[in-house]
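Researcher: Structure prediction, please.
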Amino acid sequence: MPKKSQARGHDTRYVRLQKNYCFACGKNNPEGMRLKFTFDEVRDCFVCRFRLGKRYTGPPGHCHGGIIATILDEAMGKVNKLRHVVALTSQIAVNYLKPVPLNKPLRVESREVRVRGRQHINMAEIFDQKGEVLARSRGTFIAVDAERMFAKYADK
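Model: Predicted structure follows.
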């Protein structure tokens, strides 16, 4: 595993040169969630603190399950930065433990479970302000050659 000081992001030409329109974390997507993750070196995990507004409503006063899955997927995807790879989601499993409230402080944390070749297994959890786990996920990500796979979409 790389040193923690190297865990700042992907080191590929493709990723460095692109504008980020990702719905979950893209700073260039005006309609997106703009989630911001940091790496907690002491706890060896990625962390994002956020609040969900009314636009993410599912059940009254609570978040839509698809948005919960999006947040967990994004959090798990960030873990792949530790190994300086671009890895795409192959499969995720989400356990919805308790309803996720709107307009309350929330936190998502993610960490690596294991790596086997191109296959990266990660996990994530969403916590409320009391530290109770509201949702949990486990995902499989497959490392890809981003420059080759996405070259036709590169910003000119």
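Model: The domain at 4-153 is CATH 3.10.129.10 (Thiol Ester Dehydrase; Chain A).
Researcher: Thanks, that helps.
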